[in-house]
Amino acid sequence: MSSSLEKNMLILRSSDGEEFIVPEVVAVMSKAIKNMVEDECASNTIPVPNVDANILAMVIEFCKKHDESEAEAASDLKTFDSEFVNRGQEALYDLITAANFRDVKELLDALCQNVAEMIKGKSVHHIRIQFLGYQLFEILTSNFIWNIWCDRDFD
Amino acid sequence: MSMHSSPIDKVAANDDILTQILIKLPVKSLLRFKSVSKHWLFLIVNPHFARCRNPNSSFVSGLFLYSSMRRRNPELNFIPLQNIENPSDDDDNAYLAPLTTIPSLSGKKILSSCHGLLCCSSHSSLEGDYQFRYHILNPTTKQFKSLPQPRDGHKGLNLVFDPSRSPHYKVVCVWRVDCVDLVLSVESDQNKLYYQIEIYSSETGSWRACAEPFTANRNSQFHSGVYWNGAINWFNTLGDSLYFNMEDERVRTVPMPPIPHGDWKRRPFRYYGESNDHLHVVEIYGPRIQFDVYEIERDYSGCFVKYHVDLGSVGAAFPQMMQRLSLDAMYYSFTILSLVREKKDGEDSFMVLHIPGKILWYNLGDKSFKKICDVGVEHCDGNGMIEDSFMYFWFHSFQYIESVAWI
Asked: At A72, is the pLDDT very low, low, confident or very high (cuts 50, 70, 90)?
């Protein structure tokens, strides 16, 4: 009994060392993990570097819901997705990086859609501050002309 | 990357993720965000981006229509075909509709539409002559590019664009070869003329002559060609319909539906066009509301009846359709403006019909129909002629396919 349980379960270890026991069907929603399992290079415990316990728990929650709800109405899943992605900036972008790195397509799609909804009405200036904050100084100093060109009104 | 890179910095520095986000933006935001940085511009104008954003380059979201009434300065109208019931709040249609308000577009005429790009002509007396100029336009991004002048006396320009094959577009131009130029005049058929083809490629930015001259019927039309199946297809009311294969650059004959017995000398085309990689032809012999939609076989071995259409139910609901045109009594008052083939063919494929005062949606699967919009209502008070509210013909109708292809 216990061996069959183990067979269908995988242990995922986050970057900060926490371990999660997850059904294999859920874990392989990450293509990266799926490849590891198929290549049989996964031992019992699969390390998930770059993803901390907090974020990994969220990713697992998402995958579990999507695995269970195959039979559920698509609209329910949509509601779950929209609530799931509605998070603070830090968690949202951490999740995106994790979903991309672990190759969880459905999650990445839902998260990117959310970001697109958030930014679609924003001004160029706003986007620069939000996304390029760390290189704003560089842009302002070295691309002065570029900035003037960019500020033309496209509408 | 800096040691303190925040979660958002990691996302902003990752091309794959950034592209995933940008792909999901409406066109209007996308065009605005081209100016966020060189990096964002690079991602957005990449041909790969355009292909990922619209993997189905056959998704028709509207029609551009010219009114046939005002020939001299025809009015360009836009009719949305998607989200008719619940228009999106992004309002891309409202953004597109006033295309004519772009100063550089006034006086231009659409010649053909191909997977999101339009080929347009313009003529102006400002340059001292009435020479036509030709332009490629992307109505989604409102970007346009003027083509170098093709050879004088050409017979028409035909646009070739298929983003699934190449990010570059081509323009095929046919011109008549004067007999004096011909050394190899073997055939001396009075009804045949020699033609030569030139191709413009956006990759090289120039025209080049291609292949040997070919012979074709004196009345052959070489404008309004339809790009389908890797070839430009020209339909002729008299003589053979022809296609020019872009691969081997040769001209061959398109198999056409049989002509019924009778005195039919000309093919009475009522529609031809490409949709979702299928080429459809409709000919209606005489005043009829029953007709067949033919489809050309992919290997040009023949053609077959794809749909039997009977517009009796439409005529019952809209009796104005059953009046004959005073201009040509061979016509009932309806035209096919477009035929759109969808993935779920049996359920979703449809025709856009025009009857006096109205544009209709006709489902080819379940044969249901509904009104899309009213047109020319100001003429519908019963005083004017039927033609006043019946102003669009299929050859003035061009599919709008959203594309962010950079031209």
From this structure: low
Nearest Cβ partner of A116 from B2, B21, B32?
B21
ipTM of the complex: 0.81
CATH of A2-120, one of 3.40.50.2300, 3.40.1550.10, 3.30.710.10, 3.40.640.10: 3.30.710.10
Question: Which residue numbers in chain B have pLDDT < 70?
Answer: 1-4, 68-74, 83-107, 124-130, 179-190, 377-388
- Dist CA B36 CA A147 (whole Å): 9
- Which residues have a Cβ under 8 Å from the Cβ of A130 and sit 6 or more positions away? A119, A122, B8
Q: A–B: how many Cβ contacts below 8 A?
A: 86
Asked if residues B81 and B121 have their Cβ atoms less than 8 Å apart, the reply is no
The shortest C-alpha distance from B311 to chain A (Å) reads: 37
Contact predicate B209/B195, CB 8 Å: no
**Three-point CA angle B378, B383, B389, nearest 5°:** 45
Are B11 and A96 a contacting pair at CB < 8 A? yes
Nearest partner of B84 among B365, B370, B378, judged by Cα: B370
Per-residue confidence (pLDDT) for residue A129, from 0 to 100: 82
Alpha-carbon span B251 to B219, nearest angstrom: 16
In chain B the domains, ranked by start, together with CATH numbers, are 1-45 (no CATH), 46-401 (2.120.10)
| Comma-separated ranges of CATH 3.30.710.10 domains in chain A | 2-120
Rounded Cα distance, A16 and B139, in Å:
51
- What is the pLDDT, as a whole number, of residue A2? 40
Least Cα separation, residue B168 to chain A (angstroms)? 25
Q: Which of residues 113-132 of A touch B (CB under 8 A)?
A: 113, 115-116, 119-124, 127-128, 130-132
Tokens of B133: 């100029």
State whether A120 and B16 contact (CB < 8 Å).
no
**Contact: A97, B33; criterion CB under 8 Å:** no
